[in-house]
Design a protein that fits this description.
15 helices; mainly alpha
Length: 280
């Protein structure tokens, strides 16, 4: 139930390289203006905005249907997942943690001709139809597996460069746990276990979720970068392996999931005013 209910969330954000999270410990800071410019140049602003799409999967994570919350559901989701709120929260955190030199390195790459094309493709992919991406991406990936395995390996290098310690699945599960607990506190559902029991149940799905995330990322990459040459993909993989780029993704993805957790907890509180309590 846990992995299945959470699949809709990571499909929204496991696109291209922006799909995993680690923790960060940079102690310098950048100006708000430079962070805002950085977000736009790299496309991370659209990645933050796309968190709103994950709200569609919120009721199913609780074993409920959207209709059970009535006509107010859409309004509640729009209010909680406001682009202004999410971007402001991301900028505030990054302003205090993102070093100017590291910021400049990533912005320099994404401002290049290749970088701008990558950002454009990733921005489109964030809001493209999930069924189209899944169907066409799977077909492309199957062809690559049979006659262009080096391109698939480049996609795998991208994932490894961004999350060498395989932290992503744990972050996904933490979002789900925090949302379920917040929903229970808000009276939307009734848990038949305590927090430790919930965490133990979720942990059992870790390996299957990790495999599902990795497979989904390959399919998403196959679709997102379908118009890029093998050389372009390899250059991107190498760029992501640079230490400064790794630091940027540590920070950006940590912020991405912090914003997501915060918004889902806020959504649970609002849903508590809309729907009846049920057992989970």
């Amino acid at each position: 139930m846990m992995a299945r209910g959470f699949a809709g969330l990571f499909k929204t954000i496991a696109v291209g390289a922006i799909c995993l999270v680690t923790t960060a410990s940079v102690s310098f800071s950048a100006s708000r203006e430079s962070v805002e410019a950085f977000l736009k140049t790299t496309g991370f602003d659209v990645a933050i905005d796309s968190i709103a799409l994950s709200a569609a999967g919120a009721p199913s994570m609780l074993g409920l249907e959207e209709a059970e919350f009535g006509s107010e559901w859409a309004r509640a989701a729009d209010l909680v997942f406001s682009e202004e709120i999410m971007r402001d929260r991301a900028i505030t955190i990054l302003q205090a943690t993102l070093d100017d030199d590291v910021l400049a390195h990533a912005a320099g790459f994404y401002a290049s001709d290749l970088g701008m094309r990558l950002v454009e493709a990733e921005n489109i992919a964030h809001f493209a139809d999930d069924e189209v991406k899944q169907t066409e991406g799977q077909e492309i990936l199957e062809e690559l597996m049979s006659d262009n395995h080096e391109r698939v390996m480049a996609f795998e290098r991208m994932g490894q460069a961004i999350d060498p310690n395989d932290i992503g699945p744990k972050a996904f599960q933490e979002v789900q746990i925090r949302f379920v607990l917040a929903a229970a506190y808000a009276g939307i559902i009734q848990l038949r276990t305590d927090e430790d029991g919930l965490r133990a149940a979720v942990a059992e799905d870790y390996e299957s979720l990790r495999d599902l995330i990795n497979e989904s990322a390959l399919v998403a990459n196959a679709w997102t970068y379908r118009d890029f040459s093998d050389k372009d993909v390899l250059i991107y993989a190498e760029a992501l392996e640079h230490p400064d780029m790794a630091t940027v993704y540590e920070l950006m993805n940590a912020v991405h999931y912090e914003v997501m957790m915060n918004r889902f907890e806020a959504l649970a509180l609002m849903l508590g005013q809309l729907g009846p309590a049920q057992e989970l």
